[in-house]
Amino acid sequence: MSTQAPLPPEALDDWLAALAAALDLDPADIPVGLLLDLARDVAHGVARPAAPLSTFLVGLAAARNGGTAADIERAAALASGLALAWGEDHPQDGR
């Protein structure tokens, strides 16, 4: 099993632009910082594997509720709040 070297930040931009184009989305509509913050909150408050699944659910919920930037922000805020409370309400390993 090989390990990959960390990618430079511009590689993330290139990947998101390519994926957005493949999915017929406008890269400008992707709130990268918001989604990365959500992933951080979930990874630290719940568990690392919950982060990508949570961002998917936020995207799905936002799309079903209209798909606007406000819908994404609302779903992300709800998920982040839940994740932060989860970490406090469900301590693991004595934290």
Question: Secondary-structure map with pairings?
Answer:
Blueprint: H1 9-22, H2 32-45, H3 50-64, H4 69-89
Helix pairs in contact: 2-3, 2-4, 3-4
Organism: Cryobacterium mannosilyticum
Domain DUF6457: 8-89
Protein name: DUF6457 domain-containing protein
Describe this structure in words.
There is one protein chain. This protein has a domain at 27-88. It contains four helices and no strands. It has helices at 9-22, 32-45, 50-64, 69-89. It is flat, with a radius of gyration of 15 Å. The chain starts with 8 loop residues before the first helix and ends in a 6-residue tail after the last helix. The model has no long low-confidence stretch (mean pLDDT 90). Residues 8-89 form the DUF6457 domain. This is DUF6457 domain-containing protein. It comes from Cryobacterium mannosilyticum.
In short:
This protein is mainly α and 95 residues long. The chain has a domain of 62 residues. It comes from Cryobacterium mannosilyticum.
| Molecular shape | flat
First and last CA, distance = 33 Å
Strand fraction equals under 5%
Contiguous helical run count? 4
In helices, the fraction of residues equals 55-70%
Secondary-structure class: mainly alpha
**Rg over C-alpha atoms, rounded to the nearest angstrom:** 15 Å
Order of helices and strands: HHHH
Largest sheet: none
Number of strands: 0
Query: Which stretches are poorly predicted, pLDDT < 50 over at least 5 residues?
Result: none
Quote the average pLDDT. 90
